[in-house]
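in:
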């Protein structure tokens, strides 16, 4: 049995470049607001944080871009 060492892995630059090529559609704002309401109802602080940030990115895509 032959072992390939080191295992080839993409560099950070290549991984970021691959992410830039693929666009991800954001869910609609009403769907994200429903997720935010569910998180608040369940006292899920991490869910509240994630959903609120996603709402802002969906409503104003220019936020967070240089």
């Amino acid at each position: 049995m032959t072992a390939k060492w080191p295992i080839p892995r993409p560099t950070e630059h290549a991984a970021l470049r691959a992410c830039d090529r693929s666009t991800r559609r954001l869910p609609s704002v009403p769907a994200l607001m429903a997720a935010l309401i569910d998180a608040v109802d369940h006292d899920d602080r991490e869910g509240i944080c994630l959903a609120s940030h996603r709402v802002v990115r969906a409503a104003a895509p220019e936020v967070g871009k240089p």
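note: The helical segments are 12-21, 29-41, 45-59.
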